[in-house]
Amino acid sequence: MPPIHPMPPIGLGTFRLKGDAVKQVLRDAIRTGYRHIDTAAIYRNEQAIGAVLQETYHNPQTTITRSDFWITSKISPYDMKRPREALLQTLRLLQTEYLNLYLIHWPAVARKSANSPEHKILRLEAWNVLNEAKREGLVRHIGVSNFTPQHIQELIDETEYGIQDAFVQMEIHPWYWRDALEIQTRFRGYGVTIVGYALLAEGRLVGESFPQVLDDISERLGLSKVQVVLAWALSKNWGVLVKSENIDHLQENLGALSAVNVLTSGDLAILDSISSAGEEEKLCWDPRHVK
């Protein structure tokens, strides 16, 4: 798969990991070879991640520096009225002068009804602030998370900056992937990059109810089911976020990069057909009700 941006295509997700737990996972991930780290203000783990990164930079047994990492964070829905201050706080906690990627985490402000007109006003204002921060060098790239195609279209139609080279992070798995394809196709001319999370469909793909076709493909190719699903998403030129507290699983996840080359077009079609258009199941937060 040819590189389409400097972001490592497989990143370490840190949702629900805090304190000593996130520190150990991050240490293991760095030793395993991860250089893409995804966090968010609302995860409340930025300070712990920053501490491990500093520990890594100052480790005399390695030559790893800040420039080796791609670090993503996100503005909290609770901070939509103060996006610049939120960014500066994230930079302080992560102990870094810049982020590789900063995202608007959710298209709505916290504690407001889904149809509040304030959501649109604040997300457009936040987008302008993120663009200004990019010009200052505080962030290298910017984007959105959990936005619908309509929310993204508003950034084109109603801000001076548009969405050139923006990133879109969203839920992606075999039961819910066509919205990602729509965004990728609709905004292709803007150089939009898609990054998926929840690739294992909240555990469904490795539980007892996983599709038999997935087992068939993994057995035939000598891959784990997780590697097959990650390779399926990577084959669509989507980045993926993975999470595990098990170092063996972390290593296995990275193996999905080489698995991209062994999945056939027939395998990809079978994986696409696990769900059908109009009958997809979104398992995480649903932004489609946010105005």
Automatic annotation (TrEMBL):
- Start and end of every NADP-dependent oxidoreductase domain? 9-274
Does the UniProt entry include the keyword Hydrolase? no
What InterPro entries does the record tag this protein with? AKR (IPR020471), Aldo/ket_reductase_CS (IPR018170), NAD(P)_OxRdtase_dom_sf (IPR036812), NADP_OxRdtase_dom (IPR023210)
Q: Does the keyword Transferase apply?
A: no
Read off the SUPFAM superfamilies from this record.
NAD(P)-linked oxidoreductase
Superkingdom per UniProt:
Eukaryota
Which of UniProt's keywords are assigned here? NADP, Oxidoreductase
Site residues, Lowers pKa of active site Tyr? K74
Q: Please provide, alphabetically and separated by semicolons, the GO molecular function terms listed in this UniProt record.
A: oxidoreductase activity, acting on the CH-OH group of donors, NAD or NADP as acceptor
Q: Which Gene3D superfamilies match?
A: NADP-dependent oxidoreductase domain
Binding residue positions for substrate: H105
Q: Which PROSITE patterns match?
A: ALDOKETO_REDUCTASE_1 (PS00798), ALDOKETO_REDUCTASE_2 (PS00062)
Instruction: Write down the Pfam families for this protein, in alphabetical order.
Output: Aldo_ket_red
Catalytic residues of the enzyme? Y43 (proton donor)
Q: Which family does it belong to?
A: Belongs to the aldo/keto reductase family.
Supply the name of the protein.
Aldo/keto reductase
What organism is the protein native to? Hyaloscypha variabilis (strain UAMH 11265 / GT02V1 / F)
